[in-house]
Amino acid sequence: MATATASRSSQGKVTVGDTSKKKTKEVTADGFSTKSLMKNAKVTEPPAAGAFKKRPAKPTAFRKFYERGDFPIALEHDTKGNKIAWKVEIEKLDYHHYLPLFFDGLCETTHPYEFFARQGVHDMLEHGAAKILPAIPQLIIPIKNALNTRDHKVVCTTLKVLQHLVVSGEMVGEALVPYYRQILPILNIFKNKNLNSGDGIDYSQQKRENIGDLVQETLRAFEEYGGQDAFINIKYMIPTYESCMQS
After folding, report:
1. Mean pLDDT of the chain
2. Which pLDDT tens digit goes with each residue over 196-239?
3. Directed axis angle between helix 211-225 and helix 152-166, to 10°?
Protein backbone atom coordinates (compact mmCIF):
# COMPACT_ATOMS: atom_id res chain seq x y z
CA MET A 1 0.00 0.00 0.00
CA ALA A 2 1.08 3.54 -0.65
CA THR A 3 2.22 5.57 2.30
CA ALA A 4 1.71 9.30 2.61
CA THR A 5 3.23 12.07 4.68
CA ALA A 6 1.34 15.21 5.66
CA SER A 7 2.75 18.65 6.37
CA ARG A 8 1.07 21.91 7.41
CA SER A 9 1.99 25.10 5.68
CA SER A 10 2.15 28.51 7.30
CA GLN A 11 -1.38 29.25 5.95
CA GLY A 12 -2.72 26.18 7.70
CA LYS A 13 -3.15 24.08 4.53
CA VAL A 14 -2.25 20.44 4.66
CA THR A 15 -0.21 18.93 1.77
CA VAL A 16 0.12 15.25 1.15
CA GLY A 17 3.17 13.66 -0.56
CA ASP A 18 3.50 10.08 -1.84
CA THR A 19 6.76 8.46 -0.76
CA SER A 20 6.06 5.01 -2.25
CA LYS A 21 7.73 5.70 -5.60
CA LYS A 22 11.04 3.91 -5.63
CA LYS A 23 13.48 3.40 -8.46
CA THR A 24 13.01 -0.04 -9.99
CA LYS A 25 16.21 -2.07 -10.14
CA GLU A 26 17.37 -2.91 -13.66
CA VAL A 27 17.62 -6.60 -14.49
CA THR A 28 19.99 -8.03 -17.10
CA ALA A 29 18.43 -10.66 -19.35
CA ASP A 30 19.34 -12.69 -22.39
CA GLY A 31 17.47 -12.04 -25.60
CA PHE A 32 14.23 -14.00 -26.19
CA SER A 33 14.21 -15.22 -22.56
CA THR A 34 11.22 -14.91 -20.22
CA LYS A 35 13.12 -12.39 -18.13
CA SER A 36 13.61 -10.15 -21.18
CA LEU A 37 9.83 -9.44 -21.21
CA MET A 38 10.01 -7.64 -17.86
CA LYS A 39 9.63 -3.85 -17.93
CA ASN A 40 12.86 -3.31 -16.03
CA ALA A 41 14.87 -5.78 -18.16
CA LYS A 42 17.96 -4.73 -20.07
CA VAL A 43 18.57 -7.22 -22.89
CA THR A 44 22.23 -8.12 -23.41
CA GLU A 45 23.77 -8.18 -26.87
CA PRO A 46 24.35 -11.59 -28.44
CA PRO A 47 27.92 -12.91 -28.19
CA ALA A 48 30.21 -12.62 -31.19
CA ALA A 49 30.00 -15.59 -33.53
CA GLY A 50 33.80 -15.78 -33.75
CA ALA A 51 33.89 -16.72 -37.44
CA PHE A 52 37.24 -14.98 -37.90
CA LYS A 53 38.68 -15.93 -34.52
CA LYS A 54 41.93 -17.90 -34.61
CA ARG A 55 41.67 -21.56 -33.68
CA PRO A 56 44.67 -23.24 -32.05
CA ALA A 57 46.29 -25.80 -34.31
CA LYS A 58 47.00 -29.29 -33.02
CA PRO A 59 50.61 -30.55 -32.93
CA THR A 60 51.53 -31.48 -36.49
CA ALA A 61 53.04 -34.72 -37.69
CA PHE A 62 55.33 -32.56 -39.83
CA ARG A 63 57.04 -31.11 -36.74
CA LYS A 64 57.51 -34.56 -35.21
CA PHE A 65 59.07 -35.96 -38.39
CA TYR A 66 61.29 -32.90 -38.81
CA GLU A 67 62.60 -33.08 -35.25
CA ARG A 68 63.35 -36.76 -35.72
CA GLY A 69 65.37 -35.95 -38.83
CA ASP A 70 63.16 -38.01 -41.13
CA PHE A 71 63.06 -35.43 -43.93
CA PRO A 72 65.88 -35.31 -46.51
CA ILE A 73 66.18 -31.53 -46.21
CA ALA A 74 68.49 -28.89 -44.80
CA LEU A 75 68.48 -25.11 -44.58
CA GLU A 76 70.69 -23.34 -47.10
CA HIS A 77 71.59 -19.65 -47.15
CA ASP A 78 72.44 -17.72 -50.30
CA THR A 79 72.37 -14.11 -51.51
CA LYS A 80 68.62 -14.30 -52.14
CA GLY A 81 67.81 -15.58 -48.67
CA ASN A 82 66.93 -18.99 -47.25
CA LYS A 83 66.04 -22.01 -49.32
CA ILE A 84 65.74 -25.76 -48.90
CA ALA A 85 68.65 -27.97 -49.81
CA TRP A 86 67.22 -31.37 -50.77
CA LYS A 87 69.51 -34.30 -50.05
CA VAL A 88 67.80 -36.41 -52.72
CA GLU A 89 66.24 -35.61 -56.07
CA ILE A 90 62.71 -34.33 -55.49
CA GLU A 91 61.37 -36.36 -58.42
CA LYS A 92 62.44 -39.58 -56.67
CA LEU A 93 60.56 -38.87 -53.43
CA ASP A 94 57.63 -41.02 -52.35
CA TYR A 95 54.85 -38.45 -52.83
CA HIS A 96 52.24 -40.62 -51.08
CA HIS A 97 54.36 -40.37 -47.93
CA TYR A 98 56.03 -36.96 -48.04
CA LEU A 99 53.53 -34.65 -49.76
CA PRO A 100 50.73 -35.09 -47.14
CA LEU A 101 53.28 -34.53 -44.37
CA PHE A 102 54.48 -31.26 -45.88
CA PHE A 103 50.86 -30.15 -46.36
CA ASP A 104 50.27 -31.01 -42.70
CA GLY A 105 53.01 -28.51 -41.84
CA LEU A 106 51.06 -25.62 -43.38
CA CYS A 107 49.49 -25.13 -39.92
CA GLU A 108 52.89 -24.20 -38.50
CA THR A 109 53.61 -20.54 -37.76
CA THR A 110 57.05 -20.75 -36.12
CA HIS A 111 60.48 -20.94 -37.74
CA PRO A 112 61.90 -23.18 -39.12
CA TYR A 113 58.84 -25.46 -39.36
CA GLU A 114 56.73 -22.88 -41.19
CA PHE A 115 59.48 -22.16 -43.73
CA PHE A 116 60.31 -25.81 -44.45
CA ALA A 117 56.67 -26.83 -44.82
CA ARG A 118 55.73 -23.93 -47.10
CA GLN A 119 58.82 -24.07 -49.29
CA GLY A 120 58.82 -27.88 -49.31
CA VAL A 121 55.25 -27.98 -50.60
CA HIS A 122 56.01 -25.57 -53.43
CA ASP A 123 59.19 -27.46 -54.37
CA MET A 124 57.33 -30.78 -54.49
CA LEU A 125 54.46 -29.31 -56.52
CA GLU A 126 56.98 -27.82 -58.94
CA HIS A 127 58.65 -31.17 -59.64
CA GLY A 128 55.89 -33.68 -58.87
CA ALA A 129 54.13 -33.89 -62.26
CA ALA A 130 52.18 -37.17 -62.46
CA LYS A 131 52.98 -38.12 -58.86
CA ILE A 132 50.71 -35.41 -57.43
CA LEU A 133 47.33 -36.60 -58.73
CA PRO A 134 47.26 -39.96 -56.86
CA ALA A 135 48.09 -38.19 -53.58
CA ILE A 136 45.16 -35.70 -53.74
CA PRO A 137 42.82 -37.61 -51.35
CA GLN A 138 45.53 -37.55 -48.67
CA LEU A 139 45.93 -33.77 -48.94
CA ILE A 140 42.34 -32.79 -48.15
CA ILE A 141 42.46 -33.17 -44.35
CA PRO A 142 45.73 -31.19 -44.01
CA ILE A 143 44.29 -28.45 -46.26
CA LYS A 144 41.07 -28.34 -44.24
CA ASN A 145 43.00 -28.24 -40.94
CA ALA A 146 45.15 -25.35 -42.14
CA LEU A 147 42.15 -23.30 -43.31
CA ASN A 148 40.23 -24.05 -40.11
CA THR A 149 42.89 -22.33 -38.00
CA ARG A 150 41.48 -19.00 -39.27
CA ASP A 151 45.00 -17.68 -38.77
CA HIS A 152 45.57 -14.87 -41.27
CA LYS A 153 49.08 -15.97 -42.19
CA VAL A 154 48.22 -19.67 -42.39
CA VAL A 155 45.11 -19.08 -44.52
CA CYS A 156 47.03 -16.86 -46.96
CA THR A 157 49.81 -19.44 -47.27
CA THR A 158 47.29 -22.24 -47.86
CA LEU A 159 45.41 -20.28 -50.52
CA LYS A 160 48.65 -19.70 -52.43
CA VAL A 161 49.42 -23.41 -52.16
CA LEU A 162 45.96 -24.28 -53.52
CA GLN A 163 46.54 -22.00 -56.49
CA HIS A 164 49.83 -23.79 -57.18
CA LEU A 165 48.24 -27.20 -56.62
CA VAL A 166 45.56 -26.87 -59.32
CA VAL A 167 48.17 -26.06 -61.98
CA SER A 168 50.78 -28.58 -60.81
CA GLY A 169 49.65 -31.47 -62.99
CA GLU A 170 47.00 -32.72 -65.39
CA MET A 171 43.56 -33.44 -63.91
CA VAL A 172 44.60 -32.16 -60.46
CA GLY A 173 42.09 -29.30 -60.59
CA GLU A 174 39.30 -31.69 -61.58
CA ALA A 175 40.32 -34.15 -58.85
CA LEU A 176 39.69 -31.44 -56.23
CA VAL A 177 36.04 -30.85 -57.25
CA PRO A 178 34.59 -33.70 -55.12
CA TYR A 179 36.31 -32.16 -52.08
CA TYR A 180 34.90 -28.63 -52.43
CA ARG A 181 32.54 -29.28 -49.51
CA GLN A 182 35.54 -29.68 -47.23
CA ILE A 183 37.58 -26.81 -48.65
CA LEU A 184 35.17 -24.05 -49.67
CA PRO A 185 33.25 -23.27 -46.43
CA ILE A 186 36.21 -21.37 -44.99
CA LEU A 187 36.74 -19.59 -48.32
CA ASN A 188 33.10 -18.50 -48.16
CA ILE A 189 33.71 -16.96 -44.73
CA PHE A 190 36.75 -14.95 -45.85
CA LYS A 191 35.52 -14.14 -49.37
CA ASN A 192 34.66 -10.52 -48.53
CA LYS A 193 37.23 -9.96 -45.80
CA ASN A 194 39.42 -7.24 -47.28
CA LEU A 195 41.67 -5.00 -45.26
CA ASN A 196 41.05 -1.92 -47.43
CA SER A 197 39.20 0.87 -45.65
CA GLY A 198 38.39 4.26 -47.15
CA ASP A 199 41.36 5.92 -48.78
CA GLY A 200 43.88 4.04 -46.66
CA ILE A 201 46.68 2.18 -48.40
CA ASP A 202 46.63 -1.56 -47.92
CA TYR A 203 50.20 -2.77 -48.22
CA SER A 204 49.02 -6.37 -47.82
CA GLN A 205 47.94 -6.26 -51.48
CA GLN A 206 51.54 -5.72 -52.52
CA LYS A 207 52.65 -8.73 -50.45
CA ARG A 208 49.64 -10.83 -51.60
CA GLU A 209 48.40 -11.20 -48.04
CA ASN A 210 44.89 -9.82 -48.55
CA ILE A 211 42.65 -12.80 -47.77
CA GLY A 212 39.65 -11.53 -49.75
CA ASP A 213 41.71 -11.08 -52.91
CA LEU A 214 43.44 -14.44 -52.49
CA VAL A 215 40.08 -16.21 -52.07
CA GLN A 216 38.85 -14.68 -55.33
CA GLU A 217 42.05 -15.73 -57.12
CA THR A 218 41.77 -19.27 -55.72
CA LEU A 219 38.13 -19.65 -56.76
CA ARG A 220 38.95 -18.45 -60.28
CA ALA A 221 41.77 -21.01 -60.47
CA PHE A 222 39.40 -23.74 -59.23
CA GLU A 223 36.86 -22.83 -61.92
CA GLU A 224 39.43 -22.52 -64.69
CA TYR A 225 41.17 -25.84 -63.99
CA GLY A 226 38.29 -27.77 -62.40
CA GLY A 227 36.53 -28.82 -65.57
CA GLN A 228 32.88 -28.42 -66.55
CA ASP A 229 31.49 -29.27 -63.11
CA ALA A 230 33.66 -26.81 -61.21
CA PHE A 231 31.48 -23.70 -61.44
CA ILE A 232 28.21 -25.31 -60.37
CA ASN A 233 29.94 -26.91 -57.38
CA ILE A 234 31.58 -23.63 -56.38
CA LYS A 235 28.25 -21.82 -56.77
CA TYR A 236 26.55 -24.39 -54.55
CA MET A 237 29.00 -23.74 -51.71
CA ILE A 238 29.48 -20.00 -52.35
CA PRO A 239 26.23 -18.59 -53.80
CA THR A 240 27.68 -15.09 -54.29
CA TYR A 241 30.49 -16.32 -56.55
CA GLU A 242 30.31 -15.09 -60.15
CA SER A 243 31.93 -17.02 -62.96
CA CYS A 244 35.16 -15.70 -64.41
CA MET A 245 34.57 -17.67 -67.61
CA GLN A 246 31.48 -15.78 -68.72
CA SER A 247 31.93 -13.34 -71.57
Report:
1. 81
2. 444 344 444 445 668 889 999 999 999 999 999 999 999 999 99
3. 20
pLDDT per residue as tens digits for the range 66-81: 999 989 998 887 777 7
For residue 102, give the nearest of 131, 156, 142, 147 by alpha carbon. 142
Q: Which stretch of DSSP H or E encloses residue 238?
A: none
How far is Cα 177 from Cα 30, in angstroms, rounded to an integer?
A: 43
Tell me which CATH code domain 61-193+207-237 carries. Answer: 1.25.10.10
CB 105 within 8 A of CB 116: yes
Average the pLDDT over 7-26 and give the result.
57
Strands 41-43, 14-18: pairing kind: unpaired
Return the beta strands (E) in 61-216 as ranges: 73-78, 81-86
pLDDT at 51: 57
Q: Number of C-alpha atoms within 13 angstroms, CB side, residue 77? A: 0
Q: How far apart are alpha carbons 173 and 166 in whole angstroms?
A: 4
**Number of CB atoms found within 10 A of residue 52's CB:** 13
Helix then strand then coil, % of the chain, to nearest 5: 50, 10, 40
Q: Which amino acid is at 129?
A: A
- Asked if 62 contacts 105 with a C-beta cutoff of 8 angstroms, the reply is yes
Q: Where are the domains of the chain?
A: 61-193+207-237
Provide the 3-class DSSP secondary structure of residue 222. Answer: helix
